[in-house]
């Protein structure tokens, strides 16, 4: 016999089982490729319009099919270093500055962010000020450093301290 107590337990169990499938992000089977920036693209971190600014920019494909755009590589890392960002990420892309011009980065010069090498503490400005210069080849990064100075970093070496140092160096240069 189904008592009131058993009924509530069964009903609660069915409800919880149904909700268990709602918690995770579902990965959408769509293309995960960078695309040219549009005039109305805004940076996912600062909200600034992206088109027309110098320096390397970035994009991130999310598991749910959305594409986030970033006005600089620094803003991409600001987003990536948030605890809830990485589980959403499918693939991030940055400009290969060894294959494009700093003032007008080409939309077909994107590379996977996790295989790029980065130069920090260099003097060229991105859309929001100091940024990480991204390169597909270490040789290109070292040639850039020979001309502009800086320090070479791999993707997994970029942390909050690196971003703070970028901002601190910019403040010191402008004082």
TrEMBL record:
Pfam family for this entry, one: NosL
Domain of life: Bacteria
Name of the protein in question: Copper chaperone NosL
Organism: Halomonas campaniensis
């Amino acid at each position: 016999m189904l008592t009131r107590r058993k009924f509530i337990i069964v009903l609660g169990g069915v409800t919880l089982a149904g909700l268990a499938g709602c918690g995770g992000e579902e990965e959408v089977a769509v293309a995960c490729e960078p695309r040219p920036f549009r005039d109305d693209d805004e940076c996912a971190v600062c909200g600034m319009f992206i088109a027309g600014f110098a320096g390397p920019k970035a994009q991130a494909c999310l598991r749910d099919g959305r594409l986030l755009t970033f006005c600089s590589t620094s803003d991409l890392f600001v987003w990536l270093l948030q605890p809830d960002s990485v589980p959403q990420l499918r693939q991030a892309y940055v400009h290969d500055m060894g294959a494009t011009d700093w003032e007008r980065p080409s939309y077909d010069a994107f590379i996977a962010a996790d295989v790029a090498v980065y130069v920090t503490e260099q003097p060229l400005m991105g859309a929001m000020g100091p940024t990480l210069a991204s390169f597909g080849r270490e040789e290109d990064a070292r040639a850039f450093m020979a001309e502009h100075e800086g320090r070479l970093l791999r993707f997994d070496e970029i942390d909050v301290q690196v971003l703070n140092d970028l901002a601190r160096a910019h403040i010191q240069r402008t004082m």
